[in-house]
Design a protein that fits this description.
With 124 residues, the chain is mainly alpha-helical. Helices cover 48% and strands 6% of the residues. The strands form two sheets. It has a two-stranded parallel ribbon with strand order 1-3. A two-stranded parallel ribbon has the order 2-4. Helix 1 packs antiparallel against helix 2 (64-82). Residues 1-12 and 120-124 have low confidence and may be disordered.
């Protein structure tokens, strides 16, 4: 029996997701930047396997999910800055990621964000 070194397996609880909408309801732009930094650290270890905290069962544990998770967070940040309603944030992300599991998590994430008021609301 041979042992595989754990240093070649990357994972940090819910650091990476695999085809599931991320739970960002309690996050801020700052904590999302910290999450991206944590993913950078995991990636720097050059793991061959990354075990997602949440994933579709049929998906493999490829290190590609590090960048996919990072990009999802970047997209969420971008839309959170551009949109003025929770529904708009949800719709934009769902359009970009239509096949991810658990859209309820995306809805909760959108509703948990403080969005910029629209120009009309600022003038009131």
């Amino acid at each position: 029996m041979s042992a595989r070194p754990l240093s070649r397996v990357g994972g940090r609880r819910d650091a990476a997701y695999n085809e599931v909408h991320l739970y960002l309801a309690e996050s801020t732009a700052e904590t999302r930047r910290e999450w991206i930094a944590a993913l950078d650290t995991v990636e720097s270890l050059k793991p061959r396997t990354v075990i997602a905290g949440h994933k579709k069962p049929e998906k493999n544990d490829s290190p590609r999910i590090i960048e996919e998770t990072r990009q999802y967070i970047r997209d969420f940040n971008r839309f959170a800055e551009m949109t003025t309603t929770h529904r708009e944030l949800y719709d934009e992300m769902l359009q970009l990621y239509p096949n991810r599991a658990n859209p309820g998590s995306l809805w909760g994430s959108a509703c948990g964000q403080t969005l910029m008021p629209s120009k009309d609301e600022k003038e009131k």
